[in-house]
Amino acid sequence: MQASGASQTQVQSQVQALLQPHGTMQGYEPGAWFCEMLRPGQPQHPTLTLLMSRLAALPIESLRQRAAAAERDLLDRGITFTVYSDATAIDRILPFDLIPRVITPAEWQQIETGVVQRVRALNMFLYDIYHERKILADKIVPADLVLKNAGYCQAMVGFDVPFNTYVHVCGTDIVRDETGAFRVLEDNARTPSGVAYVVENRHMSLRVMSDLMTSLRVRGVDEYGLRLHNAMAEIAPPGVEDPQVVVLSPGIFNSAYFEHVFLAREMGVPLVEGRDLCVEGGKVWMRTTSGLAQVHTIYRRIGDDFLDPDAFNPDSMLGVRGLIEAWRRGAVAIANAVGTGVADDKAIYAYMPRIIQYYLSEEAILPNVDTRICAEPDALAYTLDHLHELVVKPVAESGGYGLLIGPHASKAQLAEFRALLKADPSNYISQPTLKLSVSPTLCEDGVRPRHIDLRPFAVTGRDTWVLPGGLTRVALRAGTLVVNSSQGGGSKDTWVLA
Amino acid sequence: MDMIPQRHKVHLIARHAESTLWLARYMERIENLARILDVTNTFARDADDTRNWLSIPRINGDLVAFYKKHGEATQRSVGEFYLLDSDNPTSVQSFIAAARENARTLRALIATEMWLQINVFYGRIRQLNAANITPDHFTAVCGMLKDGAQAHTGITEGTLYRDQAWHFYMIGRYLERADQTTRLLDTRFHSLAPQTDAVDADIDAGHWNALLRAAAGYHAYRREHPSGYDATEVACFLLANTAFPRSVGLNLAQIEWHLTQLRTRYFLRLPAALERLDQLNGMMTYQNVAELAGRKLSPFLDYVQREIGGLHQDIVGTFSG
Asked: Which CATH number covers residue A284?
């Protein structure tokens, strides 16, 4: 594949003069994809040029040795997630690609302000749909889509949360198209995971790539725990001088347990399970060696349904009986709030630009990917007509399962999805296949372009703060666009330049 | 006196305190088991090989489980049972799996180095296979296990923050040491009644030698008693000595110190444990042990073992359930 457009070719030839003759980057050819390293059509950043020349000067064997050391290190450290399929559970590492993804200050400016804007809109939307429902009355978002949404929580109606913040931790999945424009792929407003990798990947870079980082001005990511703890303290019930924060995990067998440990350590608070907590006298307590001690804020990493067998799933063994009632009475703060799932639903996502416009009278700083809601007849017709060129996603699922990538699908798969769509159109949205940007990635046959996305993390108490970095996931298999860890994706360190 | 000016009260989750105790106990068990296997392999090579190897399942109360799987006690069968068999709850495979699970539970409280070493150690133990327990590799495997357990002990000493969790950790370690020494002494004492015959005395010397080496006390004992072995002296050394790291008396004294710290610095209520310990400590004197050694040491050792178990229950019982 050849890059199109004169300016793109020009810039690439300049850079490739530097890359081609020798070293690590030999034979690297991003083709028509937007490359995060060469960034055709964008002004070159001196740090990137320096990094590229350092990378180019490195023998590929050195890169491979470092990659092997990094993999060994991840396994030894038990930085793993668990993959469950049928009856087996396997501890896997999230493969780490040691060539970083770099974000320039100007790019970060857009991402940061865009994420802050989006989180504000999400919180305002949640407040509205659990109170006056103005946006529904004004028919900006169909009422049924919200009120009949599986993520809509009746228990939240009329209930106030501190600072009207529902989404305390938000992970916004952002991709970059072939023109280099950032677009939001989805919001994760429930219990987004991955932030531990942001920090651990940085530490890994410092261990195995320190010579490449020398004197480059990369913004630090170590502040996350402190910022998160501050936000958790801010939302604690009023009048508590030194609030007790805990991280609530489903336990050591959860696939994200490593991250729960990370969060508790970074905040310096206990990592508890449901069985360590109880509700007595309307307050929430944890069982300590010296008896019950009051808990003021719970950063929970278990889903709404499992939080409280009294309020939700009565079979849940993970939760705390009476927790929701204690919360509603103001005895404890829970982050993220219950009932945020309605806001990060893929069906609501389609309306986000209009939601931002409605509450903030602003254009979305980070645009959506063009999205069609199959519940609407026109959109369904279009989707059925163009199935072979679209990505079709179920709105209720996550994790990359059960999605159709039209251009890669067989006739049988297309027919199967056509039937699924007709049977239950409101369960699906469709989007054009994305030409995701690529980043140079160490592969079997050398450094090769692989597709990436970005998940920055925003922490909100009174105000919103965005961690200057993010989880860059990379699709390690050639050609694939799916970056999910459960589908063979890996990750990269994300360098936001100062 | 509070040494650390505390900004706020740092709580320890009760379940984590229990995990800490168990982590220490399982890691200590690995070292003890490796010691006994190594010493049996090296020093107890007299005519009655089977009796020597059988002493290990006997120490651990595993005779029934052992005979269910193996016909005869040999280096091979005992090695397999204790080094490779993950179905056997008293094998190093089970110990390291349990230690790692507790460490995982405590991951937010312990240093990365501590976790990393356990995780790597786990990987190494999981990889052991039949080739590792052949006569030419047996000592090396025991050495690897001892090294791993001792590295853990060292990392813990150097990194574990000295708050409540540390006290519980140390109590777990000392409980386990006291328990293991009692078991070691109990089984050997059965077969080590005083002998008059010169040949028997030689064999005896070999056994005392092995016993002391298994407890890492051979040279210390020699220093204290250069003249030879005496059943009463050995019993006193292992039970009442206050300088030997694996003597029951010293370990009980250390447990008492840690319990007192928990009571005075963290205001934990541990009346049952302290009372039981007080009684037990009172019996661990040279005079008392010397008196018992000739006649009824075995029932006494059974009693001590039960009390050590009771102590663990007392401590855990104060904050769970």
From this structure: 3.40.50.11290
